[in-house]
Model the fold of this input.
Amino acid sequence: GAGVSQSPSNKVTEKGKDVELRCDPISGHTALYWYRQSLGQGLEFLIYFQGNSAPDKSGLPSDRFSAERTGGSVSTLTIQRTQQEDSAVYLCASSSHTLSEQFFGPGTRLTVL
Amino acid sequence: SQELEQSPQSLIVQEGKNLTINCTSSKTLYGLYWYKQKYGEGLIFLMMLQKGGEEKSHEKITAKLDEKKQQSSLHITASQPSHAGIYLCGADRRGGGADGLTFGKGTHLIIQP
Done:
């Protein structure tokens, strides 16, 4: 595709449920990033994948959050036992290499009731 | 970790007027990125600055990087309604290498007709 795509665009879930968010990066981009944007915290880095290297998970807020990237392309961010404070817009970005601009997807708006 | 402070937090400008948004870092800036976000949408890449003193322009938007002051400024000339949105500066989280970005809280720009 022409840009980074994310699905779903909106997700409403109940507290305690697990959710999966998907990111399709721009074809050929080796670096993939997940961020979270909320009113109180602004835009926060969560996790970073570069090629086949082990991901940098230093930004994940708790062990309920995990992410994987299959085949160096599509990535899934999983939040287990969701809490209300997980409500935010989750943004994915990709770049052709680590020193170039990051292109962002439209985001997934997650609401935990 | 890197922290970025943007000023002003919000700005209301009459159409046709010039404006400047600043981004100040708590640490040495190795790479500074400017993005624009329309309300409820993803981030649009504007410019990336990597060297002290570097200046880049795109249409009516100019960005500069002052390495000594650990600061970048974004200047819009003859503002138009299409310039309205949230402007975010981002910088490499750890410096010296590239991975996820740290972002400022953003500057909300409103253009009055």
Remarks:
- Chain B has a mean pLDDT of 89.
- The interface with chain A takes residues 31, 33, 35, 41-45, 48, 88, 90, 93, 97-106 of chain B (CB under 8 Å).
- The longest strand of chain B covers residues 85-92.
- Chain B has no helices and eleven strands.
